[in-house]
Amino acid sequence: MTRLKNFLGFFGCIFLLSTLIKCEDDIYMCDSKNSKNWQIYCSGRILEAYNFHQITNDSKEYVDKPLIYSPEETIQNFTKLFGNLSAAEINREKFAYFINQSFQEAGHELKKCDPDGFIEYPPKLSAIKDQEMKEFAFSLHKIWKELCKEMDEKVLKNPEKFSLLPLKHKFIAPGGRFREPYYWDAYWIIKGLMASELYDAAKQMIYNFADYVNTYGFIPNGGRVYYLQRYAMYI
What we know:
Oligomer: single chain
Order of helices and strands: HHHHHHEHHHEHEHHEE
Pfam family, one: Trehalase
Number of domains: 2
Helix content: 40-55%
GO molecular function: alpha,alpha-trehalase activity
Strand content: 5-15%
Largest sheet: 3 strands, antiparallel
InterPro entries: 6-hairpin_glycosidase_sf (IPR008928), 6hp_glycosidase-like_sf (IPR012341), Glyco_hydro_37 (IPR001661), Glyco_hydro_37_CS (IPR018232)
Strand order of the largest sheet: 1-2-3
Number of strands: 5
EC number: 3.2.1.28
Shape: elongated
């Protein structure tokens, strides 16, 4: 009898939890409380259709694309073209054309830059005695110029057209498809900048994080609107 009670109690808890979960509102990666373009990059019919039709193999490609028009205009244009059609009913070719006419290429809003204070052969690395290790250190040091990013002024003027969170200072991106700054990567990046004696560049990374805290109350996992409710680092 005791086992039966425990058994029923266990499944009673599962039922209660499942009921509570169903009662919860949908939680998006960003929403109207923290983003003016949340219906473009964090939810909505355009995002649903893009993922359904797999316009590119990498879904990050879409959410990193800057808008040509305002979020409201973009949604209106989508509705004019496709009405109330479901994602499955939307013609893939017509939708791909809409994306090309409504968005710019990902990365278009970022400029390459040199980290402040960059010199080819910093004294600290030049002091390495092992020649092979020294050459390896210099090869890593040169990569800073490839990873240094600066936001175009238009990101600051019209932030609603970008998934990037606006930043005034230069930053070092992880590289590849990750063009925005990241919280966890920054620890190792800043250590590397210090080793390269790029102290001003390291300060700029920290200034950017301070701006995040002042604006959002925490440091997001990454510098995009779709990270505003994910893996937050609260201060």
